[in-house]
Amino acid sequence: MVPTQSDVRETIAQLVKKRDERRDSFASGIKLAMETPFGKDAEEVRNVLSKHGVSSRLGEQVVQLAEQQASFSVFGIVDALTRIAGRYENAGDRLFVDQKAASLLSLAA
């Protein structure tokens, strides 16, 4: 059976609605991450990072970068980790750091 023009329009409308719902959900999650504090100061941030398996060396780099952005929010820490991961040449190292960042983003939920 060949779909009618009406069927095609309805399908497109459903896809657009689903896309918009996903976009809005993502935007809400990012907004929440920007508003959720990761720690009150650099020391607390380092401690939380350590509890989540981030090495002290990497944690120090994250804190320094987050301080430059003046943000110890969950988003600020995840953003710092992502920026640091981008500097790594080895894909495995980048993946490891990106996985840590993704798991920390869930702290805002």
Overview of the structural elements:
With 109 residues, the chain is an all-alpha fold. It contains 5 helices and no strands. The chain has helices spanning 5-35, 42-51, 56-68, 74-87, 91-105. Helix 3 packs across helix 4 (74-87). The radius of gyration is 19 Å and the shape is elongated. The termini are far apart. The relative contact order is 0.13.
In short:
The protein has 109 residues and is mainly α. It has helices at residues 5-35, 42-51, 56-68, 74-87, 91-105.
What layout of secondary structure does this protein have?
Blueprint: H1 5-35, H2 42-51, H3 56-68, H4 74-87, H5 91-105
Record keyword descriptors for this entry.
109 residues; mainly alpha
Shape: elongated
Q: How large is the share of residues in beta strands?
A: under 5%
Query: What is the number of helices?
Result: 5
Quote the distance from N terminus to C terminus: 45 Å
Structural category is mainly alpha
Task: Estimate nothing, just give the exact number of structural domains.
Answer: 1
Order of helices and strands: HHHHH
* Biggest beta sheet attributes: none
Give the % helix: over 70%
Gyration radius, to the nearest Å? 19 Å
Would you tell me the overall average pLDDT? 93
The tally of beta strands, per DSSP, is 0
Q: What low-confidence regions span 5 or more consecutive residues with pLDDT below 50? A: none
